[in-house]
Structure formats: structure tokens, C-alpha cells
Write a structure and sequence with these properties.
By secondary structure, this protein is an alpha+beta fold. It is 23% helix and 31% strand.
Length: 193
């Protein structure tokens, strides 16, 4: 029986129960899953608590709900304060703060002048946004000069290297998530041991 027909055959009480259960499971599962990710990645990658109470998260009855998705498959979003995330020292000139979603990774790199990410590639698409400072990015025989406000989209498996010529704040978005980092593989910016 198709899902739509199953929903129509449920009574109002069953639909309300299913909705409450799905919300409750989402509230329990998302923080638990993120905590599991943090614990599996090691102490340096622990995450700060999510924001779950007012004024950051408020009840909004009837808002943000699609009947076709919310009742059975939607997971409640999780809100974080990026500034509250632990700062991991990658090298003397490079620090990072990161969050892993279910299918992506968000990183804020705090890089001192002279910080380098040597030539490398990965299976993840990378979107880099420089919010402060300046970096030179080398890829495929080209130099891309990135300054505050510029965004560079790096396709999967494309070799690239970064040289930060000023103190820089770089926001990176990776998709799919950086499973290598979750598994404890160090960043390419880490000193070779």
C-alpha cells in the first residue's frame, strides 16, 4: 500500500501520535548521533552543546511543516553557535572549528600569515569562503587570489593548495561530510610526523 494511502487510513489520533513520536525521536536521535560522531572523532573534535532553548529555539506551531515530509521522515534541525565550538590546533599557524552534519562538514579555519595547506585532493566537493584576509590557491596550473568576500568552488578530486599571505578566516563547506576527519585522519595542514 503506498505511503499516502497508509497515512489516509490512519485516524487523527494515530497521525498525532506518529507526529509526536517522530519529533521526539528526532530530538533524541540528532543530538545523540552528533555526540557519537564527536566521541568517535576524538577529544579534539568534540562539539559544543546545541542551542535548544529560547531565545534561540522557540515553538512555532504550524510553521515549517510539510504534510508530505514532516509527519514521517523529517529530522529536527540542530542549531549551534560556531564561535562556541572547540578550537583545534592543527599546526603552529592553523586552527580549526568544525561541525559535521549528516551529509556535510562545515569548518572555520583560523590561519596566521604563512599558513599552508599543501597540495592535496579529496573526494569531497569543497566550497571555500574567505571572510577575512587573503590566500593564494593553486590548482590545475592556475593561481586564484582569494580575498575577503570571495568564494571558490573546488570540484571533487581536484588537486589544490592554499598559501595564506595574511591572517585569514576561511569558512569551508564539504560535501559529502569529511569521513576521513571523523575517522581521525589529520588535516593536510598538520605537520608531517
Amino acid at each position: 500500500m503506498p505511503d499516502r494511502q497508509q497515512k489516509q487510513s490512519r485516524g487523527p489520533a494515530q497521525r498525532r501520535t506518529a507526529k509526536v513520536l517522530s519529533r521526539g525521536l528526532a530530538r533524541l536521535c540528532v543530538p545523540a548521533a552528533l555526540a557519537l560522531l564527536a566521541s568517535s572523532a576524538g577529544a579534539a573534535d568534540e562539539i559544543a552543546p546545541s542551542l535548544t532553548v529560547p531565545p534561540a529555539v522557540l515553538d512555532a506551531p504550524g510553521r515549517g511543516i510539510q504534510a508530505s515530509a514532516s509527519g514521517h521522515s523529517a529530522i529536527l534541525p540542530t542549531l549551534y553557535q560556531l564561535d562556541s565550538q572547540p578550537i583545534e590546533q592543527i599546526s603552529p599557524l592553523v586552527q580549526r572549528q568544525l561541525l559535521h552534519g549528516t551529509q556535510s562538514t562545515l569548518v572555520r579555519w583560523i590561519v596566521k600569515k604563512g599558513g599552508v595547506f599543501p597540495l592535496h585532493h579529496h573526494a569531497n566537493e569543497q566550497v571555500t569562503w574567505i571572510t577575512q584576509g587573503r590566500c593564494e590557491v593553486y590548482s590545475q596550473g592556475k593561481e586564484f587570489v582569494m580575498t575577503a568576500g570571495t568564494v571558490l568552488v573546488i570540484p571533487p578530486n581536484t588537486p589544490h593548495e592554499f598559501v595564506c599571505t595574511e591572517d585569514t578566516i576561511d569558512i569551508d563547506f564539504f560535501s559529502p561530510q569529511r569521513q576521513d576527519w571523523i575517522d581521525g585522519v589529520p588535516s593536510v595542514a598538520a605537520p608531517v610526523k
